[in-house]
Design brief:
With 62 residues, the protein is α+β, with helices and mostly antiparallel strands. It contains 1 helix and 4 strands. A 4-stranded antiparallel sheet has the order 1-2-3-4, covered by helices on one side. It is globular.
Length: 62
């Protein structure tokens, strides 16, 4: 299990690379806190949006 303690773009980009099976650079993503859940973040990437929970789980925000 990956545990994310802060919105560190390099760590999130690494998780995205694994999740999407392609290289994601830290500069390609935008990160903002999710006020609905402590330790959760909104992540903007390309034209899609994702939510990362405190345990590092990434899901589509559709």
């Amino acid at each position: 299990m990956d545990i994310i303690y802060a919105a560190e773009k390099p760590s999130i980009a690494s998780l995205f690379s694994e999740h999407l099976n392609r290289r994601v650079e830290p500069e390609q993503i935008k990160v903002a806190e999710n006020p609905d859940e402590t330790g959760s973040f909104y992540i903007g990437f390309d034209l899609d949006s994702y939510v990362m929970s405190p345990d590092g789980h990434i899901t589509s925000n559709r």
